[in-house]
């Protein structure tokens, strides 16, 4: 893993006086997601291009007088988030505390969500990344950015990218991230659903499709899986990027939620350069040539009964950042 920089550096010392730390963290879209057949260990090797989009959760970490780690959630889909030890933000704080041998430290995490839950945009992973950064500052731990990225990889495959942000190539299970060059800004319309999709169920469906010969999986040692897309991103030309967007999990997501095919067709017919299912879905992301084009596509999509909410966002966006109030 290459040396990583993000706004945790230079934060050492703030926690000695601050009783509250706020962090903002973005959603992500997988511009390309290539998936290998399930390995003997039950996991899938990936080759993916992540890009952070300007849709953010905000996490506030407040020091507790005891050693408890607690969480409350509000905002979009908050009723679908478990405020208990299974919450990824809590797991991240526990992992950080364990790594540094500081079991006496406590924290209350308040999460204000704008990223869809179970939407394929790394909402839980984003909150875990925010928790790592916020708690490292609040507890005044002697961390480096690379320390946090290494811890993040043990929590979830998308968590390291949520710390790094921008654009990155992910390999392995997705947690081995390398920042990539993307010139310019990109305009997206997101079509959201109030009904999430279980990531394990999407992967299980993908496995069935591979076994049936309906999908050709990634060859894990393929060095060129995302090369053409990375070249297009370096050009800054959305029209070059659009035909290279792809998701090996898209057909599985559409098999489980057939209405996603109608949403994808409607968005491209309305003028989007391309539309893809983001990650394991069900969020659909539409790349547009300009902001006015994005507004036109949004107008069409918001009229569909299969779509519960639409958003216009831009990318790339920074990873987890401290919020100075």
Automatic annotation (TrEMBL):
<dbReference type="Pfam" id="PF08544">
    <property type="entry name" value="GHMP_kinases_C"/>
</dbReference>
<keyword id="KW-0547">Nucleotide-binding</keyword>
<feature type="domain" description="GHMP kinase C-terminal">
    <location>
        <begin position="230"/>
        <end position="302"/>
    </location>
</feature>
<dbReference type="InterPro" id="IPR020568">
    <property type="entry name" value="Ribosomal_Su5_D2-typ_SF"/>
</dbReference>
<feature type="active site">
    <location>
        <position position="158"/>
    </location>
</feature>
<keyword id="KW-0414">Isoprene biosynthesis</keyword>
<dbReference type="InterPro" id="IPR036554">
    <property type="entry name" value="GHMP_kinase_C_sf"/>
</dbReference>
<dbReference type="Pfam" id="PF00288">
    <property type="entry name" value="GHMP_kinases_N"/>
</dbReference>
<keyword id="KW-0418">Kinase</keyword>
<comment type="function">
    <text>Catalyzes the phosphorylation of the position 2 hydroxy group of 4-diphosphocytidyl-2C-methyl-D-erythritol.</text>
</comment>
<protein>
    <recommendedName>
        <fullName>4-diphosphocytidyl-2-C-methyl-D-erythritol kinase</fullName>
        <ecNumber>2.7.1.148</ecNumber>
    </recommendedName>
</protein>
<feature type="active site">
    <location>
        <position position="28"/>
    </location>
</feature>
<dbReference type="InterPro" id="IPR013750">
    <property type="entry name" value="GHMP_kinase_C_dom"/>
</dbReference>
<dbReference type="InterPro" id="IPR004424">
    <property type="entry name" value="IspE"/>
</dbReference>
<keyword id="KW-0808">Transferase</keyword>
<comment type="pathway">
    <text>Isoprenoid biosynthesis; isopentenyl diphosphate biosynthesis via DXP pathway; isopentenyl diphosphate from 1-deoxy-D-xylulose 5-phosphate: step 3/6.</text>
</comment>
<dbReference type="InterPro" id="IPR014721">
    <property type="entry name" value="Ribsml_uS5_D2-typ_fold_subgr"/>
</dbReference>
<keyword id="KW-0067">ATP-binding</keyword>
<dbReference type="InterPro" id="IPR006204">
    <property type="entry name" value="GHMP_kinase_N_dom"/>
</dbReference>
<dbReference type="GO" id="GO:0050515">
    <property type="term" value="F:4-(cytidine 5'-diphospho)-2-C-methyl-D-erythritol kinase activity"/>
</dbReference>
<comment type="similarity">
    <text>Belongs to the GHMP kinase family. IspE subfamily.</text>
</comment>
<dbReference type="GO" id="GO:0005524">
    <property type="term" value="F:ATP binding"/>
</dbReference>
<dbReference type="GO" id="GO:0019288">
    <property type="term" value="P:isopentenyl diphosphate biosynthetic process, methylerythritol 4-phosphate pathway"/>
</dbReference>
<dbReference type="GO" id="GO:0016114">
    <property type="term" value="P:terpenoid biosynthetic process"/>
</dbReference>
<feature type="domain" description="GHMP kinase N-terminal">
    <location>
        <begin position="87"/>
        <end position="166"/>
    </location>
</feature>
<feature type="binding site">
    <location>
        <begin position="116"/>
        <end position="126"/>
    </location>
    <ligand>
        <name>ATP</name>
    </ligand>
</feature>
């Amino acid at each position: 893993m290459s040396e990583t920089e993000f706004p945790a550096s230079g934060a050492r010392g703030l926690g000695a006086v601050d009783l509250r730390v706020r962090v903002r963290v973005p959603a992500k879209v997988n511009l390309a997601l290539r998936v290998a057949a399930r390995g003997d260990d039950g996991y899938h090797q990936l080759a993916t291009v992540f890009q952070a989009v300007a849709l953010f959760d905000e996490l506030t970490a407040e020091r507790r007088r005891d050693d408890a780690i607690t969480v409350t959630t509000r905002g979009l889909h908050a009723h679908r988030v478990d405020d208990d030890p299974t919450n990824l933000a809590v797991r991240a704080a526990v992992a950080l505390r364990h790594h540094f041998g500081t079991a006496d430290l406590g924290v209350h995490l308040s999460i204000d969500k704008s990223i869809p839950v179970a939407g394929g945009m790394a909402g839980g992973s984003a909150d875990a990344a925010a928790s790592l950064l916020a708690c490292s500052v609040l507890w005044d731990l002697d961390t480096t950015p690379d320390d946090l990225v290494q811890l993040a990889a043990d929590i979830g495959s998308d968590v390291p990218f949520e710390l790094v942000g921008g654009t990155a190539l992910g390999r392995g299970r997705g947690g081995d991230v390398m920042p990539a060059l993307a010139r310019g800004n990109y305009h997206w319309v997101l079509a959201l659903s109030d009904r999430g999709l279980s990531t394990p169920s999407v992967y299980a469906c993908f496995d069935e499709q591979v076994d049936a010969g309906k999908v050709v999986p990634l060859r894990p040692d393929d060095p060129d899986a995302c090369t053409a897309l990375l070249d297009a991103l370096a050009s800054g030309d959305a029209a070059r990027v659009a035909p290279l967007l792809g998701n090996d999990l898209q057909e599985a997501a559409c098999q489980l939620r057939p209405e996603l095919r109608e949403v994808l067709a409607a968005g491209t017919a309305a003028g989007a350069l391309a539309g893809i299912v983001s990650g394991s879905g069900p969020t659909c992301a539409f790349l547009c040539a300009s902001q006015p084009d994005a507004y036109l596509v949004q107008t069409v999509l918001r009229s569909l009964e299969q779509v519960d909410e639409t958003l216009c966002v831009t990318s790339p966006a920074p990873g987890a950042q401290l919020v100075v109030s």
